[in-house]
Input
Amino acid sequence: MVALTFDDCFLPDLVEPLLQDLEAVGARATFFCVGRVFRSHPELARRLVAGGHELGNHTLHHRMLAPRPDRRVIDTEIDGWQRAVEEALGGPYPTRWFRPPGMAGFTTEADPKILEAVRRRGMRVALWTLDVYRSLDRLGVRDPEKVAAFLRERVRGGEVVLLHVSTSNVEGARRVLPELAARFRLVTLSEMFPPDSP
Ligand SMILES: [Zn+2]
Output
């Protein structure tokens, strides 16, 4: 099993072709879209859920919640995301995962205030094991072929892969999806880590 995760969704137009390719190979993924994207594109949330993909909380405004975590800001950002999703879906959504924007609060030890706020809402923090951003994007590499090669060479079973809804990441992932799907079951985070798992 491999869990592909796509963050931010600041370029929502890239999502639909990606979903078509995912669905063509029977794959599902987890999307940590920022809440405000669902406010302007509510149909995106509906489309993701209808396709069997999972949504994770990535705050309403992509707000870095550390190094000076403020309980009011943490609550507003986390609950604002949830409200944006439920408004877009027109009903409740049982969110299981929170991913801190910029990894803020989780770069070394988990920030206790943020962790407590996440747990109190029945969520868990979802980081990753394979980081396309740190390996390519942050170094200025925007070549889809490099993303494809990275995924082809580096993805192993059990991996949680951090990707973004960016042109290079989405294009690169689309190029290797058939190969990855032939090698692994591509699942959501909740399929990889069911609710009763430790
Ligand atoms: Zn992000």
In short: The pocket of zinc ion is lined by residues 7-8, 58, 62, 101 (CB under 6 Å). Residues 71-89 form the longest helix (19 residues). The first strand starts at residue 2 and ends at 8. The chain has nine helices and eight strands.
